[in-house]
């Protein structure tokens, strides 16, 4: 056998070794010994494992015997590991467990017999809001009580663009009927028009129940869900709950339902009207939700201009500018290097979202 170097440009080492029935380790060994260009003697050639008979391999009769035992009525429904130990404790040794697997695999007898759910692929939720009441996001938090093992459920619905809490509910249980009632009341309160709102949530039972999804369909509200076991697909609601539970006056455990209800009322009022949100440039959620932040920004800018005129040396980066809330708030924004399909003028964001979901 003669192997010449170099190999053709379109022929890989794997293909060459397959055609010549040579183990790839043999090719690497000859290249390492600088003997690659010379002839390879038959005694130096080591064929592929599956193309030659191993010295310690089972004979044909032994393999048939193992196959008959594995296919027998006593062991046909048992995996090789169970068969191996069952026979071994009765004083019988046929072969190793891996050999049993190989024999079954050659006879096409190995594999899952039960019905398996096909692998699922969930699209990445990509949401974008440029105005209030364009995207809402909501979640449920558990509030511990003084009685061990008893929790209250706090439903909180937020506006993605302004982080404004548009609706909330405290209950002793968690089910789809309460979530449906909450969403219906919120949609009526803010006069949500058809096909103008996207509601984002995770995949909990109240968020995926048929009655809840049917209500959203009747209200013409687009439902969006996080991916399974992905915690950062609903970051705004998670961040709001962390803000709540890290309040200095947050009780570790509430005395009862009325105690939790009173505390949550005070918290929601503070969060919407007094909490200067870092993600909104220091404005409160209510100011951004109502648009008051535009007039307040002018007042802030006047104060900064006066401070700069009095002491310009204190501002090393020049005249200070008021930080405005972001013009567009997104969840899982499209990467900059992604291939975005060409969108015609007038196509709304849900159409773009569906196009990207189909892509992924």
Features of the shown structure:
single chain, 360 residues, alpha/beta, Nucleotidyltransferase, domain 5, 5-stranded mixed β-sheet, two-stranded antiparallel sheet, 13 helices, 7 strands, 11% strand, elongated
Topology:
Layout: H1 13-20, H2 24-32, H3 60-70, H4 80-88, H5 97-106, E1 127-129, E2 135-144, E3 151-159, E4 165-171, H6 176-189, E5 198-201, H7 205-208, H8 210-218, E6 222-225, H9 235-245, H10 257-273, H11 285-290, H12 293-310, E7 329-331, H13 349-359
Parallel strand pairs: 2-5, 5-6
Antiparallel strand pairs: 1-7, 2-3, 3-4
Helix pairs in contact: 6-8
What does it look like?
It is built from 13 helices and 7 strands. With 360 residues, it is α/β, with parallel strands linked by helices. Among the domains are: 13-51, no CATH class; 60-106; 127-242 and 250-262, Ribonuclease H-like superfamily/Ribonuclease H (Nucleotidyltransferase, domain 5, 2-Layer Sandwich). The chain has a 5-stranded mixed sheet with strand order 4-3-2-5-6, sandwiched between helices. A two-stranded antiparallel sheet has the order 1-7. The longest helix has 18 residues, at 293-310. The radius of gyration is 34 Å and the shape is elongated.
């Amino acid at each position: 056998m003669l192997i010449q170097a170099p190999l053709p440009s379109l022929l890989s080492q794997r293909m060459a070794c397959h055609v010549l029935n040579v183990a790839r380790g043999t090719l690497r060994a000859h290249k390492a010994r600088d003997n690659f260009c010379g002839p390879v003697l038959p005694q130096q050639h080591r064929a592929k494992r599956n193309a030659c008979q191993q010295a310690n391999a089972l004979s044909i009769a032994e393999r048939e015997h193992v196959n008959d035992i594995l296919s027998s009525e006593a062991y046909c429904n048992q995996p090789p590991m169970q068969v191996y130990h069952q026979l071994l404790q009765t004083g019988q040794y046929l072969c190793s467990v891996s050999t049993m697997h190989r024999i079954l695999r050659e006879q096409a007898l190995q594999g899952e017999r039960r019905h398996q759910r096909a692998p699922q692929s969930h699209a990445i939720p990509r949401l974008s809001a440029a105005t209030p009441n364009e995207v809402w996001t909501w979640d449920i938090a558990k509030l511990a009580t003084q009685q061990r093992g008893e929790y209250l459920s706090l439903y909180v619905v937020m506006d993605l663009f302004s982080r404004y809490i548009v609706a909330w509910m405290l209950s002793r249980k968690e089910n789809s009927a309460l979530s449906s009632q909450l969403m219906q009341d919120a949609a009526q309160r803010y006069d949500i028009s058809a096909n103008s709102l996207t509601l984002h949530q995770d995949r909990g039972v109240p968020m995926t129940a048929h009655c809840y999804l049917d209500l959203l369909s009747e209200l013409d509200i687009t439902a969006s869900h996080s991916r399974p076991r992905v915690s950062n697909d609903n970051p705004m609601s998670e961040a709001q709950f962390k803000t709540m539970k890290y309040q200095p006056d947050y009780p570790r455990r509430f005395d009862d339902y009325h105690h939790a209800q009173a505390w949550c009322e005070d918290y929601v009022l503070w969060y919407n009207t007094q909490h200067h949100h870092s993600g909104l440039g220091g404005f409160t959620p209510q100011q951004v939700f109502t648009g008051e932040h535009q007039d307040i920004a002018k007042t802030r800018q006047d104060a900064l201009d006066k401070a700069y005129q009095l002491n310009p040396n204190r501002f090393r980066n020049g005249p200070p500018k008021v930080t405005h809330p972001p013009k567009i708030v997104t969840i899982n924004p499209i990467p900059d290097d992604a291939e975005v399909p060409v969108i015609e003028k007038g196509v709304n964001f849900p159409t773009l979202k569906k196009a990207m979901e189909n892509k992924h």
